[in-house]
Gfo/Idh/MocA family oxidoreductase (Ideonella livida), 356 residues
Amino acid sequence: MLQIALSGAGQVGREHARRLAPAVGAAMGARLHSVVDPSPAGAALAAEQGVPHHRSLDELLAAPLPDAVILATPNDLHVPQALALLRRGVPVLIEKPVAHDLAAGQTLVEKARQSGVPVLVGHHRRHSALLQAAKASVVAGELGRLVAVNTTVLFHKPRAYFEAAWRTQSGGGPILINLVHELDTLRWLAGEVVAVQARAGHAQRHLPVEDSAAVLLEFASGALGTLIVSDSAACVRSWEQTSGENPAYARDDSQDCLLLAGTRGSLAVPTLTRWQVEQGAEASWNQAMRRDRLSVAPLDPLTAQLQHFVEVVKGRAEPLVRADDALASLRLCLAVHEASRSGQVVRLAHVQAGVP
């Protein structure tokens, strides 16, 4: 039974702990080793789960080591804590984003490569059965060559959300808080992005931080993408509200928030409604397309991610999201933020244009 310690007893940490409880964790061959968190909430979670409590990572590392650690700590602790674990040879699953800035993230990428110790990053949507079905459809060429991608990230955050002062200041808006999820998904489905344009607005709450933004993406394949995000829109077209994968959010399962359009068909997600040009026929707006819906079995992405982590630690799988991959998603998110701030086209120099 793999012993996995949890650093961080916040909302995400508690979700991990719940999935490592004996009734659930045993099925994946893992159990909660201990909880690391200096707050009373950390001690309470450890007591609730019946495991040791450590006030710091140093305390954990001074005791018999776990087989692996999940880092669900504040962003600025991700890299220093991960580096401490790598020095002791302990595999780690880091919650997204991988780092608080690019320099720290690059340091982690290099140290992970040198150590050979598994480092995974918790972009859990890649474990979604819905998105894996969409990915398989794209890879199989069922849509032809991707032409356009459209994503809507529209929701309304409640007033209480902004009682935390940092959420009303620069860096606390939906671009840096929410879009790393969506942009990682788009990179995974449609490939790397070579250039970004964006416009942000503050018209609804009149705060220093944006409440809405529109983004234009140019993919290395030549496809173009549009993304609209707002946390002040009374709308259900966001991943959480359409996919039903997180029960904390109200759901409308009749709606989609992502459209992948290619030369031979298109796919709406998460309903997985697919349109395809008939075999041998010419694609034309004068001809009706065949319409169907992909079918997938329900799956909890966080549980699937933990199962994958266990398999990687045991040497039976390769990481789905490595540190360098997650760093590319962070880099893209920061490029969107810079484009919205400057009004200029931001080109991602590490990506070569024209690469499919």
About this structure: Residues 2-121 form a domain with the Rossmann fold fold (CATH 3.40.50.720). The chain has two domains: 2-121, 126-299+330-347. The first helix runs from residue 11 to 19.
